[in-house]
Specification:
globular; single chain; binds adenosine-5'-triphosphate; 6-stranded parallel beta sheet; Rossmann fold; 8-stranded mixed beta sheet; binds magnesium ion; 4 domains
């Protein structure tokens, strides 16, 4: 029988195979890290396509990052070869939302060439609104309002849906009004912010059931990776699409909970088996906040479709950004008749790594709990290494990497996962010194550099002249004596006539409102823009970009600049144009930019990856370095302060995600001293280190050996030699703590070799440190 299976199905274990082949009705794969959830999802798409159940355009697959989407596309290509033409709708919630929105932009008061604003634009716009409303930006910062608005959008709330209590949280009760004004302003600018890509899409679906129906009919199969990290807006969007399309619009409140009559044009694609499995009267949901607002509108009425979500409650790490792990816990409720499949075999990590990660996460209370096993060897123990400070930490890791490299380890298979992005600089500096190639993933993005943003602003204006923020950014860059007063004049003019700045500028140069010099230079600029816009149709976009940068004087501005980084900026501009080559046209390129959440390495060079733990989700590497395991940094103080126990549990899940990225080597570090926001602090090792199982973890000494007396070689000391380990610290409190710890726990380990928690790496030490240093 196996011989008849298509190649992509062989090698799956029975549960995975079940998840791939159960195509009718809702399926939830709830399973731990490295059990093949993503692989199942990809194989499932291949199976749907190869078996002819749907055409590529009828499959919707959602990944958490753009990078993950690209990877999935590549895998699909490998599985299917040339057999299939076209690709499924495969991308992040936002990229797919944006794609749909662009087609129907007019229905939500946008034009199809709308611009997607980034955070900076957003802030600038909000500042203008605050100023117009005479709200003190010092007391009520625009950033705070931006945060509130993002939060509301993540929860799928339009301005009129914001609860009064929350609207009152900003500007003496003006939060809601400002949100409304902001949305209105975006429409005038023909712009959307990131949250709008989904929110406006939801509004589109709600206000235009015919459009919704079109997509419901189109998408025969919906697949979602990392389901544990969906927020309410994403959830609502999915729920809308995952209903079987119905002819009648079940908007009346009276219809809540009753199943909507499919009516005449009953959708043909509902499989019989699905109808049989789905109760005719889905249970009405309990009222639970916003999520149910949608339900109350009747959007829950139709039976669910072929939706397959995969996720792991232990890897829910975006609660701080509005993700609701509840979504995964409620799946069976939301999609009646759902089949839940669990996968237990981990294919990624060796035994010690899996044991360490499982043991750590077992300290969380709020979890479903699951079994994970591996058939792999035990492999190398997880290591914990103390360094004097973050510089030495970086040096030690640099040396370890060089050593691995000498042993033939590919740099591509090495990652450094940090808790906070500020930690990256130290590694970047170190790697530059060592000449060690590295790439920052998801970090300070290339496209966010000032010179890149300027160049992009020019291109944005050419693409969409109503893009006021872009226009304003470059109208006087390089300097062309168009000062603030002139810009203000353009604003006034634009507001009065409700036209964009670009149009206002074109009108004003025909009058004598401006000083001759200013008028002349604005006229030159406007004529250039008109010319570039015309050339856009004739020239390749890369060529156009080069012309724009040269003719605008922007390139020259940096060529004349004497500052140290000017040369680098010119190189970046070159790189920008190179990067445009990957796209068909300007529109496509700009769209990509606005959606790039994660930057790719840019080249195929063998390089170490540096990224935050948050952006490491779903990835895997042979060797993973995890620096900065210190109280306050990891778990992060802010998470503890703001969310207490829930915050701590989310941090622990993050630690779990970090360790489970490793296939063969997980190397944890802590620094005894760290400079945070400019001042030195003595640190306490993370409580998470205490929570690791002693017989899977090895304490090693920093290899950096930089003058703090790193006695003994790397890897020489085991945890039971902790006295020796401790003696290399120069802080008295630490020495005592270490010594005490060694005495107190020596026997504990042999009695209960499975856990460090008796030794209490941090908790026991913390009071001692206080004793030694403060009392
Ligand atoms: P995470 O929760 O971290 O996202 P995951 O559950 O999505 O993990 P995958 O990334 O799909 O797991 O798989 C982990 C690794 O195990 C991958 O390298 C994958 O190719 C491999 N793998 C999965 N299933 C099998 C299998 N049946 N046989 C061999 N290797 C497998
Ligand atoms: Mg995965």
């Amino acid at each position: 029988r196996a011989a008849t299976l298509p190649a992509y199905l062989t090698g799956l274990n029975p549960e995975q195979s079940d998840a791939v082949q159960t195509l009718d009705g809702p399926v939830l794969v709830l399973a731990g890290a490295g059990t093949g959830k993503t692989r199942v999802l990809t194989t499932r798409i291949a199976h749907i396509l190869a078996s002819g159940r749907a055409r590529p355009g009828e499959v919707l697959a959602v990944t958490f990052t753009n990078k993950a989407a690209r990877e999935m596309k590549m895998r699909l290509g490998q599985m299917l070869g040339q057999a299939i033409e076209g690709m499924p709708w495969l991308g992040t919630f936002h990229s797919i939302g944006g794609r749909i929105l662009r087609v129907h932009a007019e229905l939500v008061q946008l034009k199809s060439n709308y611009t997607v604003l980034d955070t900076d634009d957003q802030i600038r716009l909000l500042k203008q609104l605050l100023a117009a409303d005479n709200i003190d930006d010092k007391r009520w910062p625009a950033r705070m309002l931006a945060g509130l608005i993002d939060g509301w959008k993540n929860r799928g709330l339009t301005p009129s849906q914001v609860p009064a209590g929350e609207a009152a949280m900003f500007g003496n009760g003006r939060g809601g009004k400002l949100y409304a004004a902001y949305q209105e302003r975006l429409k005038i600018l023909n712009a959307a912010d990131f949250g709008d890509l989904l929110l406006e899409n939801i509004r589109l679906f709600r206000e235009h059931p015919d459009v919704l129906r079109q997509y419901q009919q189109r998408f025969k199969y919906i697949l979602v990776d990392e389901y544990q990290d969906t927020n309410v807006a994403q959830y609502l969007w999915l729920r809308l699409l995952a209903q079987a399309p119905s002819q009648t619009s079940p908007r009346a409140r009276g219809e809540v909970g009753s199943h909507s009559d499919p009516g005449e044009g009953a959708p043909p694609q509902i499989a019989d088996s699905q109808l049989a499995e789905t109760p005719p009267h889905p249970t009405p949901l309990p009222a639970r906040g916003e999520r149910e607002q949608a339900v109350a509108l009747g959007e829950n009425a139709a039976p669910p479709k072929n939706i397959c979500c995969v996720g792991d409650d232990d890897q829910s790490i975006y609660g701080w950004r509005g993700a609701e792990v509840d979504n995964i816990l409620r799946f069976e409720h939301d999609f009646p008749g759902a089949k839940v499949i669990r996968l237990e075999r981990n294919y990624r990590s060796t035994g010690h790594i899996l044991a360490a990660a499982s043991y750590l996460i077992a300290h969380n209370e709020g979890r479903l709990g699951k079994t994970l096993r591996t058939e792999d060897v035990d492999g190398e123990m997880v290591t914990v290494t103390g360094a004097w400070d973050s510089e030495e930490e970086a040096r030690a890791i640099g040396e370890e990497i060089e050593q691995l490299q000498r042993q033939g380890h590919a740099l591509n298979e090495i990652a450094i996962l940090v808790r906070a992005s500020f930690q990256m600089r130290e590694f970047e500096d170190r790697f530059v010194t060592l000449g060690l190639p590295y790439r920052v993933i998801g970090g300070p993005r290339f496209y966010e550099r000032a010179e890149i943003r300027d160049a992009l602003a020019y291109l944005r204006v050419i693409n969409s002249p109503a893009d006021d923020l872009a226009f304003e950014r470059i109208v006087n860059v390089p300097k062309r004596s168009i000062g603030d007063a002139t810009v203000q004049l353009l604003h006034d003019h634009g507001r009065r006539r409700r036209i964009p700045l670009y149009e206002a500028a074109r009108a004003i140069i025909e009058t004598d409102e401006l000083k001759p010099k200013t008028r002349g230079s604005l006229r030159d600029l406007m004529m250039s823009f008109e010319r570039w816009r015309a050339q856009r149709e004739l020239l390749p976009h890369t060529e156009l970009a080069q012309i724009v940068l040269d003719e605008s004087g922007y390139t020259e501005m940096w060529q004349k600049d004497r500052s140290a980084d000017a040369a680098g900026r010119l190189e970046n501009l070159k790189e920008l144009i190179r990067s445009m080559e990957d796209f068909e046209n300007l529109q496509g390129f700009l769209e990509h930019i606005s959606l790039v959440m994660d930057r790719d390495g840019g080249s195929d060079e063998d390089a170490v990856s540096v990224m935050t733990l948050h952006s490491a989700k779903g990835l895997e590497f042979d060797t993973v370095f995890l620096p900065g395991w210190e109280e306050g940094l990891f778990p992060h103080q802010r998470a503890l302060d703001e969310q207490g126990r829930a915050g701590l549990e989310e941090e622990r899940r993050l630690a779990h995600v970090g360790i489970t990225r490793a296939r063969k080597r997980a190397k944890l570090y802590f620094a005894t001293n760290r400079r945070i926001h400019g001042s030195w602090t003595t640190t306490i090792p993370s409580r998470f280190l205490d929570e690791l199982p002693g017989d899977h973890v090895e304490i090693t000494e920093s290899k950096g050996g930089s003058g703090w007396g790193g006695a003994g070689g790397y890897g020489a000391s085991r945890f039971d030699d902790v006295g020796a380990f401790g003696s290399s610290y120069s802080t008295p409190g630490w020495q005592r703590a270490q010594a005490n710890r060694g005495r107190g726990t020596g026997s504990g380990f042999s009695e209960s070799p499975s856990s460090f928690s008796r030794g209490d790496f941090a908790r026991k030490r913390a009071p001692l440190t206080i004793e030694g240093e403060l009392v």
